[in-house]
Amino acid sequence: MISKLSNIIKNHNYQTLFLLFFSAFFICIREPDVFIYSRLWTEEGVVFLHNAWVMPPLKALFYSYAGYLNFATNGATLVARWSVPLLYVPYVTTIIGLLFQLLPLFLLLTTKDEWLNSTRARVFATLLLLLVPDSLETSLQSLHIQFYLSLSVCIIMILNTDKTYLRWIKLIILIVSAISGLMAFLLLPLYGLKMLIDRKWLRTEQFFTLFIGCIIQYSFFYEKISTRSYHFHIQDFLGILFSRDIIIPFFGYNHLTDLYLHQLQNQNAHHFLMLSCILCIITLGYILFCFYKYPPSRLSIFFLLSALILLATSIFGALGDLTWFYIGHVNQRYIFISQSLLCLMLLYFSYTLSNKGKVVCNVLIIWLIFVGFFNFFSMTYTNEHLTPWRTQVHLWQGKPDYVFQLWGGDGWKMTLPPNNN
To answer: Which spans of this chain does the record mark as coiled coil (predicted)?
Structure first.
């Protein structure tokens, strides 16, 4: 009996199912109000569900918003609009959002790469992706699934190629990511470099799939919009990288880190920003030294490069003021990808460095998980000030000009014409 149980525990298929369910369970219990009251999040309702409600399906599917096509969110809200009554639409978008949220973990757990072959590594990967990144803003909704697709694209670049069903799943992820956002453009050079290094047809196939998706996005849908910052300075980049990707994951949100972020937010406190820049450069220098001294770890440089490129471009094209990056609950969609990739780089180090280095990395991983556990539940969104969705639908059915209140802050409201009910 014990031997049979041990074999079940060691079976990768059972492990994968359990760890995916475990991650989904904790994601859901962090925001119980999402399921108790149901939720639509900002533009998820105002723009995407509204389009799905009033437009012909094909037009809504290829509607460009905020300067690019978001095929994944368009599709998710279309599925919700046409599959269930309006009363249950938020549950469909929430479930779709959850599935995409689990996608990066699914790729890691189903790969046969050696560095993810042990039970310890698989458990660490699950806990790191679940607990460490600031993911609340992107969680359990379909509006930001493009960011989970982008993270998945970064992971696919590192993992070995497959000839199984995963080959086709990865190709679908690549093309959908490219026509659901702009981050795929930034990863094309890295995919090209990986193609040249690997010299395998399957890697070439991945590069050209991503390339074709980017051509479609750029040629037919991309346009520059004036509400983005289009501003970049190296000291802003280093300050944000050090504060949000190093300080917060390792020390969490508390009085001291809140004070530190507040000082960085104060544009007159130049000494805090310069100190952060210096410490960030030292940290990056040590990481590069590890790549130099331990050649087996060098593959994970793609994690680092992806993190730096995506964060830098997010800062450049962010909506809103750059000081928002120093507010813990704001701009999480721009931050969590780089946080996730740096965690995975550390996990890769724990497999490839020297014995002492492996011990240090494992200690750091355990510490990140410990701090992340408290961070994970420190912030949540509730339904305190909003009328429950079901009540709003009933009010709308009796009064067709009723204005729906949506989650995500004051001012997010939506109207729907009654003739499409």
So the answer is: none
